[in-house]
Amino acid sequence: MDYTRFFFCTCGRFPFIGYILLTLWLLILFYTLGNTAADYFCCSLEKLSKLLNCPPTVAGVTLLPLGNGAPDVFASVAAFIGAGVGQVGLNSVLGGGLFITTFIAGLVSLSTKNPESVQLDRKSFIRDVSFYFFTIISLLVILLVGHVYLWSALMFLSIYGLYAIAVAASELLKKKYKRPQFSQIQLLPFTTGPSVLEIEENTLNRPLLDATQSPSTQTGMEKKTLPQWRWASNVAIYSQQHPPKGGEISQPLWGWGDDQTTSVWRMMGYLLQWPLSIPRRLTIPVVEDDRWSRISALTSAGLAPVFVALVFDSQDDVAFKDNLFLYGGALVVSLLLVALAFKTTKSEHPPRRFLLPWVVGGFFMSIVWFFVVANELVALLVTFGTMLNIDPSILGLTVLAWGNSMGDLMANTALARNGGDGVQIALSGCYAGPMFNTLIGLGISLVLGSWRSRPQAFILQHDDSIYYTVGFLVAGLVWALITLPVNKMQPSKPLGFGLLTLYIIFLGYRLARVLGFFPVSG
């Protein structure tokens, strides 16, 4: 949509109507982005984990961060590639990282239940913060150079591969040292269940994203300290689906004290659900048992290729008649997929055979919808910048970063209030999550940008304000690295108030620059 024309031309005489409608549409886009992750993308990730039998160490550094960071990642890609405003995507990722590592991490530290009884893992914390620090320094080098080639973009992206290997290796070593020795095993007679070693082996190879496991079957520590569906904060915040059946929920989602807050949120979601859900339900395959519909599956198989063709057609200036070959190919693929789906599916239940193509299709179509919604979101923020005479990168640094971080805010603070192991997960998420968004979101954006401009370098737009963001981000990391070890790896008020103060100073400085109290170079 051409939002600028809509505001200045369509709503020219009544600008307040334009402000109301575009603000409402901005909220709807944020909701749609999070709800797509919750009700479609994370479901596909869950099924992929089960079908591929991913061990927890693999899923924990690949599928889980992707489920939580999908809105940030695709908003960044859309800003660089779709809307062509790389500064919005860059400021969104860095602003989100600063918001999470200072404001949210500070709230986590201050809201921790019984902080004196919490002991964080020193090695894991130093590993996560060090990798994130190295990531920011590498990005700073790229920004100072001002351009990036394909090989250097791939090197930046590969940093996350090194981090994933480090996490997997450390977790496997922990499992190895915890594995009982044969000399310590006492064989008990008349036992018919699995042995200790078999139980440990099954634990190592069990999928982490197993929604069929109810809280009653979890270990005692997880049941006491971890809220349900801790693997994807978007699910708890944006999902319109109910938790999986199979056991009673021992506590509300994300530790909220009653159902009033969630019921109000769900009521608002239901009012918007149908007009927002129908287009996605007709194009994204869903193979969940409680959401299975053969008619919807056949419809998505037929409409998905056509929708992909429409998205590709919208990305160029070629007339519709010049893309008839594209739509003809999409129609042929649609007919073929509908025929195969009709032959291999039943009305009673999702397909038991050939399930992987359905899951991959849902995964791919969720990504397509991410790109579409994120592209509109970035374009709308650019229009707001024009309407308010504000640099769109400032809106990316604040509005887009805050909107995409609401899931982390609600989830991590709730985990901290539960105490115990939840504090470790919350603080780890405050650093591992932004690192994933930076390396994957900006990494993929830089790779795609340099690929399109090869053999020349991909030129990055110059923005001095990014250096201030990086400076405050590094200051927050250094403060956490100093205060936590000094306080014996226990959350404390100096850590929390220090991080919150950093973010307040940063916001005050950026607001002062916007209002003209500080000169802006260029």
From TrEMBL:
<feature type="transmembrane region" description="Helical">
    <location>
        <begin position="494"/>
        <end position="512"/>
    </location>
</feature>
<keyword id="KW-0915">Sodium</keyword>
<feature type="transmembrane region" description="Helical">
    <location>
        <begin position="155"/>
        <end position="173"/>
    </location>
</feature>
<feature type="domain" description="Sodium/calcium exchanger membrane region">
    <location>
        <begin position="24"/>
        <end position="166"/>
    </location>
</feature>
<dbReference type="GO" id="GO:0015297">
    <property type="term" value="F:antiporter activity"/>
</dbReference>
<keyword id="KW-0812">Transmembrane</keyword>
<feature type="domain" description="Sodium/calcium exchanger membrane region">
    <location>
        <begin position="359"/>
        <end position="510"/>
    </location>
</feature>
<dbReference type="GO" id="GO:0008324">
    <property type="term" value="F:monoatomic cation transmembrane transporter activity"/>
</dbReference>
<feature type="transmembrane region" description="Helical">
    <location>
        <begin position="423"/>
        <end position="446"/>
    </location>
</feature>
<feature type="transmembrane region" description="Helical">
    <location>
        <begin position="324"/>
        <end position="342"/>
    </location>
</feature>
<dbReference type="GO" id="GO:0016020">
    <property type="term" value="C:membrane"/>
</dbReference>
<protein>
    <recommendedName>
        <fullName>Sodium/calcium exchanger membrane region domain-containing protein</fullName>
    </recommendedName>
</protein>
<keyword id="KW-0050">Antiport</keyword>
<keyword id="KW-0472">Membrane</keyword>
<dbReference type="Pfam" id="PF01699">
    <property type="entry name" value="Na_Ca_ex"/>
</dbReference>
<comment type="similarity">
    <text>Belongs to the Ca(2+):cation antiporter (CaCA) (TC 2.A.19) family. Cation/calcium exchanger (CCX) subfamily.</text>
</comment>
<keyword id="KW-1133">Transmembrane helix</keyword>
<keyword id="KW-0813">Transport</keyword>
<keyword id="KW-0406">Ion transport</keyword>
<dbReference type="GO" id="GO:0006814">
    <property type="term" value="P:sodium ion transport"/>
</dbReference>
<keyword id="KW-0739">Sodium transport</keyword>
<feature type="transmembrane region" description="Helical">
    <location>
        <begin position="295"/>
        <end position="312"/>
    </location>
</feature>
<feature type="transmembrane region" description="Helical">
    <location>
        <begin position="131"/>
        <end position="149"/>
    </location>
</feature>
<dbReference type="InterPro" id="IPR051359">
    <property type="entry name" value="CaCA_antiporter"/>
</dbReference>
<feature type="transmembrane region" description="Helical">
    <location>
        <begin position="93"/>
        <end position="110"/>
    </location>
</feature>
<dbReference type="InterPro" id="IPR044880">
    <property type="entry name" value="NCX_ion-bd_dom_sf"/>
</dbReference>
<dbReference type="InterPro" id="IPR004837">
    <property type="entry name" value="NaCa_Exmemb"/>
</dbReference>
<feature type="transmembrane region" description="Helical">
    <location>
        <begin position="12"/>
        <end position="31"/>
    </location>
</feature>
<feature type="transmembrane region" description="Helical">
    <location>
        <begin position="466"/>
        <end position="487"/>
    </location>
</feature>
<feature type="transmembrane region" description="Helical">
    <location>
        <begin position="354"/>
        <end position="372"/>
    </location>
</feature>
